[in-house]
Specification:
The structure is a homotetramer of 136-residue chains. By secondary structure, the first copy, chain A, is mainly α. Chain A has five helices and no strands.
């Protein structure tokens, strides 16, 4: 069993926080932080960096938003429900925007953008499932 | 003139990003990061820490959300408008929740909570003004 | 192959950045961010929170330091070598301190602290191997 | 009196944490986060972005390192002294490297780089004074 799963299962207030949606959301956010941070750095190192500026910019916002969304999910006690919902929505918004921009460059053969677009879509989906699992 | 103002005024793409709302939003977020981080640490050092757990928790989320909101505001180029709106809403939500919880302890004489409640309210207001100034 | 590995392998400037040490360091930092964030929240939810204050505090610093260390490792181009070395050292220092404190509570039956102590030790080791692999 | 000063003065464990060095270090880190985040975005928006890639990269690392250094300074209780020293050193290292790179572009008329170089030097100085004020 992964350390993340063991942490969530031994948390003393698991109510609503140790389901598959929560764990997968935390995992998807962490992966998207990594792919977006690396994609921004890789785009900066490409010869055609001028064409990649929008991609770099969205990568930066996406990495930062995914990080804070993952932190909120990792702290299930005493949560503010409206703030969590808004934060998940911000994460869905930026992941979709970043995935679309990365995909444009992936379609022209930029491999790191292809992998990053996949991670962004997976993160948007995981956040959407998490938002759907929140008690209304 | 502050360094922040000079940075925003010399940015090559100032459209909609160097107004008073943007600068005040960035300043309010930075201050709220500081007061929430210190308030969490101060609450942890109080003898009645058990009564302050909800305050500590909201402080942690508020500091992290204010930081990323300030970063998004500090990067005006190539922004994704829906993500920015959602992020500002998350910041308004958490600042209000954190202000309310801090105020409860301020009313019982906890001075750092009083200062932090003020900073949270100021940040919520600055983010609301910023959201109102965004082109629809 | 994991997305992280594919990102590092398709980065256009892989020199010295796509080895096993780099990838394992990024992975260990990301895991330690998660376990420390959850451990802080879990400790705050325990009845004996007063005895866990030092653990919570070290968890907070450790999560934040691991995050920035992981970001530096995820951006291999144009790195400042002295800053990277100092940052890896800060990560080793805080992971060891956090592991020691968590272990004290693990020895008294606190399960989330046991898992977190393991993650902190693994992260300190991964950062030490990474520092050792840097060209002098 | 600023909110930051009031927070530090009402913290219940002020020992060694509410001096001028600590407050100025927190303030300098927060300002450097802002100038580096804006400078990276401004450089990405310049027509000669290819010549600014190293500047953008150092700005990203500098903003992130300054943020975590400011957080550590904002949480004076139960600190790990070796980790704090290493983190201050990492901040000094990256601020100096970022200032040097920004200054190169400032010398060629890039105004945002000039302001950012000033903020980076001020932050390196504040961190060095703080490190000097730590009890050995």
């Amino acid at each position: 069993m992964s350390r993340l799963r063991r942490m969530l299962e031994t948390h003393p207030e698991p109510a609503g926080s140790n389901g598959d949606e929560a764990r997968q959301c935390i995992e998807a956010c962490a992966e998207c932080v990594q792919t977006c941070a690396i994609c921004a750095d890789a785009c900066l190192a490409e010869a055609n960096v001028r064409e990649l500026v929008a991609c770099i910019r969205l990568n930066l916002d996406c990495a930062d938003i995914c990080h804070v969304t993952g932190l909120l999910m990792a702290r299930p006690s005493h949560r503010d429900a409206p703030a969590l919902r808004s934060q998940l929505q911000a994460c869905i918004d930026i992941c979709r925007a970043c995935a679309d921009e990365c995909q444009r460059h992936a379609d022209m053969g930029m491999e790191h953008c292809a992998v990053c677009a996949d991670a962004c879509r997976a993160c948007a989906d995981a956040c959407a499932r998490m938002a759907g699992a929140l008690v209304p």
